Amino acid sequence: MKVDIHQSWKPYLEEEFNQPYFGSLAQFVRDEYSRYTCYPRGNRIFAAFDHSAFDHTKVVILGQDPYHGPGQANGLCFSVREGISHPPSLINIFKEVEQDVGIPYPKSGNLERWADQGILLLNAILTVRAGQAGSHQNKGWEQFTDAVIRILSEHRQDLVFLLWGGYAKKKASLVDRRKHHVLTSGHPSPLSANRGLWFGNKHFSSTNEFLKAKGEKPIAW
C-alpha cells in the first residue's frame, strides 16, 4: 500500500507511518487488495485527507468503515460516488440538513463538496472487503485514525467534532473539549433515527453558529 497522502498531513503523521503496526497494516491491505475486491479504490484510501488539508480542516465527521457495495465508497465517510443511490444513513443526513438549515435534498450523494470546505470525512477504518462489513477491523486502521484525531486535537484549535452513534461517541475521549467543540447524537441509520435519536439534533446549524462565532466561514451544507 502506497501512502499517498496530502503533503500538509505528512509532518504530523510521519511518526505513525514509521510505527511497526502501520507496516503490518500496509502489508495486510496490499494482500487484501491483491486477492479480493476491496473498497474504496486504492487511490482513494486517503481521499479524506486529500480533500481537507491539515490547516484547512475545521470540522471532523467520523464514520466506522467504508460502504462495501459495488461502486459506493469514494474514501469519504457517508459519501458515495456520483450516480450511486443514496444509502439509508445518507438519506437521513440529507433530511436533517434540509430540516435544520433549509437546503433542499441534493441529487448527488458525493460529499466532496463538504470535504473541500474543510470537513474531514474520516472513517475509523479506511478499507473493507467487498460485501463484508467490518472485514478490515482490528488490523491497525483504528490505531491510525485515533492518532489522527489526537493530533488534530493537540495541534489545532476550535474544531467541531460531529460524533454520531455509540462507536463515534467513544472517540470523544481523544478530543480536548477545552479547545474544541464536540457535538454528539444518535447515528443517522434508520434503526437509530426511527427511535428519535437523530432527527432534530441541529448539528449543521450548530456547527455554523460555532464557526461564525470564531470568525470562520460557515459550511455550505
UniProtKB/TrEMBL annotation:
It holds the Pfam family UDG. Keywords: Cytoplasm, DNA damage, DNA repair, Glycosidase, Hydrolase. The keyword Transmembrane does not apply. Residues 50-211 form the Uracil-DNA glycosylase-like domain. It catalyses: Hydrolyzes single-stranded DNA or mismatched double-stranded DNA and polynucleotides, releasing free uracil. It is found in: Cytoplasm. NCBIfam families: PRK05254.1-1, PRK05254.1-2, PRK05254.1-4, PRK05254.1-5, ung. Belongs to the uracil-DNA glycosylase (UDG) superfamily. UNG family. Excises uracil residues from the DNA which can arise as a result of misincorporation of dUMP residues by DNA polymerase or due to deamination of cytosine. This is Uracil-DNA glycosylase. It comes from Muriicola jejuensis.
